[in-house]
Write a structure and sequence with these properties.
This protein is an all-beta fold and 112 residues long. Helices cover 0% and strands 27% of the residues. The protein contains no helices and eleven strands. The strands form four sheets. A three-stranded antiparallel beta sheet has the order 1-2-3, with no helix packed on it. Strands 7-6-11 form a three-stranded antiparallel beta sheet, with no helix packed on it. Strands 8-9-10 form a three-stranded antiparallel beta sheet, with no helix packed on it. A hairpin with a 6-residue loop joins strand 2 (23-24) and strand 3. The chain is elongated, with a radius of gyration of 18 Å. The mean pLDDT is 86.
């Protein structure tokens, strides 16, 4: 184990310690992988499988998603190209054929 302490990304406590592959915070209980943390200020978005997404990626919708005002849902298996990552609840901006500009949640897509 490492004697090096790292600041917790959740509560900013300076007492984060190594538990092997992960680091843990004794104050808030948060665990994190320091290799997954990008440079500070950079947005990290993961798909339903835990893969890190980037701007320009292609993703596949994993379940039917209802769309307000549309006659039908976005079907599972729909391929969405050239995504753009944003902050917030719906963290993927994209254009879907037949629906136009959309905002999706990353938990409903997988990297394709």
């Amino acid at each position: 184990m490492s004697d090096e302490n790292k600041s917790c990304p959740e509560c900013k406590s300076p007492y984060g310690y190594s538990t092997g592959e992960l680091y843990a915070c004794p104050e808030c209980g948060h665990e994190w992988n320091p290799e997954e943390l990008e440079a500070e200020g950079q947005l990290i978005v993961k798909d339903a499988s835990g893969n890190i997404l980037q701007d320009g990626d292609t993703v596949i919708v994993i379940k039917n998603l209802p769309v307000k005002g549309a006659t039908g849902p976005i079907k599972a298996g729909t391929k969405v190209k050239n995504i753009r990552l944003t902050e917030g609840d719906h963290n993927i901006d994209c254009k879907i054929d037949g629906f136009g500009a959309m905002a999706l949640k990353s938990e409903f897509v997988r990297k394709g």
